[in-house]
Amino acid sequence: MGESISATADRELVVTRVIDAPRRLVFKAWTNPEHVARWWGPRGFTTIHCEMDIRAGGTYRCGMRSPQGTEHWKRGVYCEIVEPERIVFTFAWENAAGDPGHELLTTVTFAEQGAKTKLTLRQSGFKTIDGRDSHVTGWTSCFERFADFMLTIAQEG
Are 49 and 36 in contact (CB under 8 A)? Predict the structure, then answer.
C-alpha cells in the first residue's frame, strides 16, 4: 500500500500509510530500539546507533550511514507517549560537531483499521518549504522499510 503525503501548511508535512499489522505491534515497533534499528531511515541506509529513553522527557539519539558511507545523526526529546495511540517528539539533525540543528515537532499517531493500523506522521516547524520537501523522500522510504519490517515481524511470530 502506498503512502499518502500532503503539505497541510507551508511548514508542515503529513505522511500516512496503512500497515498490515495490529496497532499494538506497530506501536511496539516504534518504541523498541532493537526494532527501530532494523527499519529506521531510507532504503539502503544502515542504523549504526539507536539509543531511546521512551518516556515523556526522555531523549533519543540515532545514527545512520548512507550507502556512500556518510553518517547522519539525529536527536530529540519525547514530549508525549500515549500507548498505543500517539508518540510526540522533537527532531533535530546534528551538525559535524554533534550540535543539534533546527528543531522540528513530530507527532506519530496509530489508528486501528480492523486488523491493520493507519500510521500518520505529522512533522512541523520547517524553516522553509524546501526543507519540508527534503523530508518527503526520506519519510516515504522509511515508511516502506517499516512496512517490510512489520511483515518480517509477523512471520517471526
Answer: no
Q: Using pLDDT thresholds of 50, 70 and 90, give the confidence band for residue 137.
A: confident
| Closest by Cα among 80, 77, 82, 107 to 24 | 82
Among left, alpha and beta (phi > 0; psi -120 to 50; other), residue 96 is alpha
3-state secondary structure (DSSP) of residue 21: coil
Pairing of strands 104-113, 59-65: unpaired
Half-sphere exposure (Cβ direction) of 2: Cα atoms closer than 13 Å = 2
User: Which residue intervals of the chain are DSSP H helices?
Assistant: 23-31, 33-39, 129-156
Whole-prediction pTM value?
0.90
Beta carbons of 65 and 85 less than 8 angstroms apart: no
